[in-house]
Amino acid sequence: MNTRNKNKAFAALPRNARRRASDRRGILLLVVLSLLTLFLMIGTAFIVTANQYRQMNKARGKVAEQTSAPVRQV
Asked: Could you count the other beta carbons within 10 Å of the beta carbon of residue 55?
């Protein structure tokens, strides 16, 4: 169905039905934007947490290198 036919079908609806249909589209847009925002926040939290763990493990590795007992060669 092309846009011209959709517009004709939409115009044939009573006024309150048209309003409800446009309200639904607005609500759907809000839901989609909310989900996108939620996924972005989850992704950002994952990246921040992963970077913190990486830095912490680097620091632990350096400490382990410095505090390990030297190996004696015979």
From this structure: 10
